[in-house]
Write a structure and sequence with these properties.
77% of the residues lie in helices and 0% in strands. It is an all-alpha fold. Helix 1 packs parallel to helix 7, helix 6 packs antiparallel against helix 14 and helix 12 packs parallel to helix 17. The relative contact order is 0.15.
Length: 431
């Protein structure tokens, strides 16, 4: 097999002024609102539990119901609406999320709160299936990592501001008022996104001329100088393949199971095991979110160009940080350090997982691959919250970090093995 010399890739020389900041920030705003709505119950477990007359594990299951709705519907709804204008769909989905949050605020019973969460899950799943691919449509493949870091920064800001402020509002005014305020912000967000998010379609510049997996593409993604041999450069980025998408989605799902089996119940853990005063919860959650923003910034700065190295290191550090949370129970300052370290690494990992998935996804199936990724991601969230509820009611609160540590170890092995497998498949000569 004869390899053609690497051809110049035009989009790589695009001036930074042409980087679609306005559109990506609009996606970030939508992401912030969507994640804030999904995760707000985690900061208001005691208040919602007392008012609705159910256990804290039942409130945690509101996260599971939201996520499982995403799992069951996102791919199908994305496929059914594939011919509709993506811009209009994104705006409409934010409106539906606003309605869901408003219904949650006024629902008189737990069952009706559950129903409002199902409505929110329908919109959230479609948004995430479309949102990640939307950012990819706005930039060439070499800039996907940077674009995702900007677009998905809203998710990190949701942990920095959304969940902590929602928790503080819920404690000061009531959990219903917190959801009501969120609903109003979502309505304003829909107007903002409508104005600033540029329309895209299958006929956009970066979609109409798919970039073949030449030797130049891995060089651009890795952010290194072009090496002399084409063969070496091909090994750095696996060829786009369905297998690569499947492995990425499965690994992401398993990691999210571990994370949300613990994080969904982080409020009672911080209070009862770590010893954080209830009035200090918002501050701790804010510190976690700020740490996540630092991790996300690291993705945009340098980690996003090297997901093959960054992901296993990040997973390993998460395991160590949660181990520190377990070992330092009752000691506030060491626990805070471990908690912040956990926040930094978790802030980096979701965009890294998604960057890797989009790198290995065939161009023709980016939207569908994003839908599968969203399904896997939310299956992990819902499964984690459900498993965490079972562990909480059974083995107890202190078993949750142990479960997370075990899952992180499994994911680390899976990442290394799958990356090796994809590299070997890419190195095989074409028939």
């Amino acid at each position: 097999m004869t390899l053609a010399p690497p051809r110049p890739t035009a989009p790589s020389s695009t001036p930074s002024a042409r980087f679609p900041w306005a559109g990506l920030i609009a996606i970030a705003v939508a992401t912030f609102l969507s994640i804030s709505g999904e995760m707000l119950p985690t900061g208001l477990l005691p208040e919602m539990s007392a008012d609705l007359g159910v256990t804290e594990s039942s409130i945690g299951l509101l996260v599971s119901v939201f996520a499982f709705t995403v799992v069951l519907t996102s791919t199908g709804l994305t496929h059914l609406t594939r011919r509709l204008p993506r811009h209009l769909i994104v705006v409409g989905l934010i409106v539906v999320l606003a309605i869901s949050a408003g219904l949650t605020a006024i629902a008189p019973t737990y069952e009706l709160v559950l129903a409002s969460r199902v409505l929110g899950g329908l919109a959230h799943g479609m948004f995430w299936a479309i949102g990640g691919a939307y950012a990819g449509h706005l930039v060439p493949r070499a800039q996907v990592g940077r674009a995702l870091a900007v677009a998905m920064s809203g998710g990190t800001l949701a942990f920095v501001l959304g969940v902590p402020l929602g928790t503080a509002l819920g404690q000061a005014l009531g959990w219903r008022e917190a959801f009501g305020i969120l609903a109003g912000l979502m309505a304003l967000g829909a107007v903002f996104v409508y104005k600033f998010l540029p329309p895209v379609g299958r006929g956009t510049a970066h979609e109409s001329t798919p970039e073949p997996v030449t030797d130049a593409v891995p060089t651009l993604v890795e952010g290194t100088a072009p090496p002399a041999g084409a063969t070496v450069r091909r090994r750095r980025l696996p060829k786009p393949s369905v297998l690569g998408v499947v492995l990425s989605c499965v690994i992401t799902a398993v990691f999210m199971i571990g994370h949300y089996s613990f994080f969904t119940y982080i409020t009672p853990y911080l209070v009862r095991s770590t010893g954080v005063p209830e009035q200090g919860l918002a501050g701790w959650l804010f510190a976690f979110g700020v740490a996540g923003a630092v991790g996300l910034g690291m993705v945009g700065w340098f980690l996003g160009a090297r997901p093959r190295v960054s992901i296993p290191i990040g997973v390993a550090v998460v395991g160590l940080a949660v181990t520190g949370m377990l070992l330092f129970e009752g000691m506030l300052m060491p626990s805070l350090v471990a908690f912040v370290l956990w926040g930094v690494t978790f802030g980096a990992l979701p965009p890294l997982f998604q960057t890797r998935m989009l790198q290995v996804a065939p161009e023709r199936m980016r939207d569908l691959a994003s839908a599968f990724y969203t399904t896997g991601f939310n299956a992990g969230i819902g499964g984690g919250a459900l498993i965490g509820a079972l562990v909480l009611d059974g083995a107890g609160l202190d078993s949750l970090p142990v479960l997370y540590i075990v899952v992180a170890a499994v994911v680390l092995v899976a990442v290394l093995v799958s990356d090796r497998l994809l590299a070997r498949r890419s190195a095989r000569p074409a028939a």
